């Protein structure tokens, strides 16, 4: 049986936990995470905040402590906060998945709702990195692409790891966040039905590596990973370390067509619909085009509200390191 390691022997980690994540699950696993990391010999710094912006700010400040890793506890929103803290810094991200959707953890093959398994990945990943001189991808850290978001011609405002969306799905996401019932995926379906009552196609101009798509549309999603919204495979062929984004955009659909296509997103078969198009690109500019439809909703990234259009999305290869299982594990 492995005994407790000497305090600080394994390194120094910051932990960011959102107490509201997963309806309180983040708070419930707090003791397990802190006790587990301490037992593994880490010096642990609590960088948690009372909300997502506060957690992100504290995480950024905590990087000045000389952390070996930043560990986020919660769902996709907490991963989003961690990405915005560590992007481009070289500090790897550890993920303890304890939220509601957990799409990012699942897409990366990480444990979900299993604190001991998540801590084992963090412990083994950092050990491999330390033993091999903070070695390259595959030695405890998987290097992933990340997406920088800005106003056209402006400085980077945000980063995201999974999916940015600004179509009917984003409008439904916003409505879902404002609802407290019913639980789980049924709340998303209820929000979708409510949005469909007044839905009219949005007007878009999307420029993808210089290629322009202008249309009345239903959906625009710029994906680095496959899933969002609790298991919807919006971009079934997306790979987070291939140097390319999957831009999924759909022409204007009627309400009836939307109801027909929506269930297919969970299987990823919506991409075979003739109104749905997928384009690979590294740089994507999304602009509203009022002449062709209504104003698109606020964009969401990694399930979190981001900003109104226009927005520029630029892929940065290998910008984020995520602690992963060691080779052969």
TrEMBL record:
<keyword id="KW-0808">Transferase</keyword>
<keyword id="KW-0443">Lipid metabolism</keyword>
<dbReference type="GO" id="GO:0016301">
    <property type="term" value="F:kinase activity"/>
</dbReference>
<dbReference type="InterPro" id="IPR016064">
    <property type="entry name" value="NAD/diacylglycerol_kinase_sf"/>
</dbReference>
<feature type="domain" description="DAGKc">
    <location>
        <begin position="8"/>
        <end position="139"/>
    </location>
</feature>
<dbReference type="Pfam" id="PF19279">
    <property type="entry name" value="YegS_C"/>
</dbReference>
<dbReference type="InterPro" id="IPR017438">
    <property type="entry name" value="ATP-NAD_kinase_N"/>
</dbReference>
<dbReference type="InterPro" id="IPR045540">
    <property type="entry name" value="YegS/DAGK_C"/>
</dbReference>
<keyword id="KW-0594">Phospholipid biosynthesis</keyword>
<keyword id="KW-0547">Nucleotide-binding</keyword>
<keyword id="KW-1208">Phospholipid metabolism</keyword>
<keyword id="KW-0418">Kinase</keyword>
<comment type="similarity">
    <text>Belongs to the diacylglycerol/lipid kinase family.</text>
</comment>
<dbReference type="Pfam" id="PF00781">
    <property type="entry name" value="DAGK_cat"/>
</dbReference>
<keyword id="KW-0067">ATP-binding</keyword>
<protein>
    <submittedName>
        <fullName>Diacylglycerol kinase</fullName>
    </submittedName>
</protein>
<dbReference type="InterPro" id="IPR001206">
    <property type="entry name" value="Diacylglycerol_kinase_cat_dom"/>
</dbReference>
<keyword id="KW-0444">Lipid biosynthesis</keyword>
<dbReference type="InterPro" id="IPR050187">
    <property type="entry name" value="Lipid_Phosphate_FormReg"/>
</dbReference>
């Amino acid at each position: 049986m492995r005994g407790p390691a000497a305090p600080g022997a394994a390194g120094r980690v910051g932990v960011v936990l959102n107490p509201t994540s997963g309806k309180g699950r983040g708070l419930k696993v707090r003791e397990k995470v802190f006790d587990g990391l301490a037992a593994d010999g880490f010096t642990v710094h609590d960088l948690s905040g009372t909300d997502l912006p506060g957690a992100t700010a504290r995480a950024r400040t905590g990087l000045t402590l000389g952390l070996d890793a930043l560990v986020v506890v919660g769902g996709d929103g907490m991963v989003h906060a961690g990405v915005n803290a560590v992007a481009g810094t070289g500090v790897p991200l550890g993920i303890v998945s304890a939220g509601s959707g957990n799409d990012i953890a699942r897409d990366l093959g990480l444990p979900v709702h299993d604190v001991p398994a998540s801590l084992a990945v963090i412990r083994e990943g950092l050990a491999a990195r330390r033993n091999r001189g903070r070695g390259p991808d595959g030695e405890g850290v998987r290097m992933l692409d990340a997406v920088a978001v800005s106003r056209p011609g402006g400085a980077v405002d945000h980063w995201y790891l999974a999916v940015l969306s600004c179509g009917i799905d984003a409008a439904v996401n916003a409505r879902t966040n404002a609802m407290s019932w019913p639980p789980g995926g049924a709340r998303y379906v209820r929000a979708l039905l409510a949005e469909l009552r007044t839905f009219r196609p949005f007007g878009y101009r999307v420029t993808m590596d210089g290629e322009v798509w202008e249309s009345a549309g239903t959906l625009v999603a710029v994906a680095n990973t496959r899933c969002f919204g609790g298991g919807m495979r919006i971009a079934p062929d997306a790979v987070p370390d291939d140097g390319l984004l999957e831009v999924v955009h759909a022409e204007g659909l009627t309400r009836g067509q939307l109801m027909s296509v929506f269930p297919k997103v969970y299987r990823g078969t919506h991409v075979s619909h003739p109104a749905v198009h997928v384009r690979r690109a590294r740089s994507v500019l999304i602009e509203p085009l009022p002449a062709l439809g209504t104003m698109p909703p606020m964009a969401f990234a990694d399930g979190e509200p981001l900003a109104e259009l226009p927005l520029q999305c630029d892929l940065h290869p290998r910008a984020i390191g995520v602690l992963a299982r060691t080779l052969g594990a």
